[in-house]
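Dear colleagues,

I hope this message finds you well. In preparation for our joint manuscript, I am sending the Alpha/beta hydrolase (Baekduia soli) sequence together with its predicted structure, so that both groups work from identical material. I would be grateful if you could confirm receipt.
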Amino acid sequence: MPKTVLRSGIRIHHQSVGEGPDVVMVHGITGNLAVWHLRLVPALCDELRLHTYDLRGHGHSDTPPDGYTLDDMAADLVDLLDALELERPAIVGHSYGADIALYLAATHPGRVSKVIAIESALPALEAVRSDEDWVGWTYWVQALEGAGHVVPADRRSDLRYLMRATIDLPKQWGPLRGLPRNPKPMLRLLEETTLPEDYRRVGSLSLERIAEIRTPVVLMYQERSAFRDTFDYLRAHLPDVEPILLPATRWGHFGPLEQPELVAQHVRGRLLPADADAVEVVNGSCVD
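The corresponding structure tokens are as follows:
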């Protein structure tokens, strides 16, 4: 398990595989680099050099008690780019990982050639989902109650409560669907770190700063995404943007696991020459 010690002293676990243009893949909160390796890395690594890593507090990276804001996460990414000697890779991010990618494009435009943002939420746009009737809360509560966990009325928009309750659910998407979760990583994040508060801080990526991003951005959301308002805002305000809506699925937010073939096709089509063949999710020669 290769690890790099960043300037902060935190050790970050990472993997690099494949040949071709450099692409860094950034997972979301409570995930890890396996999100990419389950389906997308095998589909893409024959023609792209893919760099995946565990965010601080996730996977096999260190878990400091604080430092989970976009400012902190982007600083980690810049340090990792330096350590891997990557000048201007493309960055593919999912959920909070997409937030980190957009943050980097805003604050370090010389370090990223293109951003593919899958289901970005962005703290600066929290107002569009802060209402108790936000569809994202509804989806989450329905999932919990469908599994037999009754959510009290006063907890239906309580992030910490919903995350804690989710620990008891089996995995809901991807090839590991139905298997029990390992509760320790999420409990550690909820009870021993400031992540539940930090991830909501806007930091340097304000609404004004979003409109100043000049890096080409591909937006990839599901048609009935709980973050559709975020998609609409970014599509209207990013100067160089290509919006993509994926077909609706049961959960919607987890395209890399729910629709890996389609996500891989779009990633490949935006990062490789236009005459590249259509992708099929099979193990490439770069995967054992």
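For the figure legend, we might mention the following. The domain at 3-127+193-271 is CATH 3.40.50.1820 (Rossmann fold). The two ends are 16 Å apart (CA to CA).

With kind regards,
E.M.
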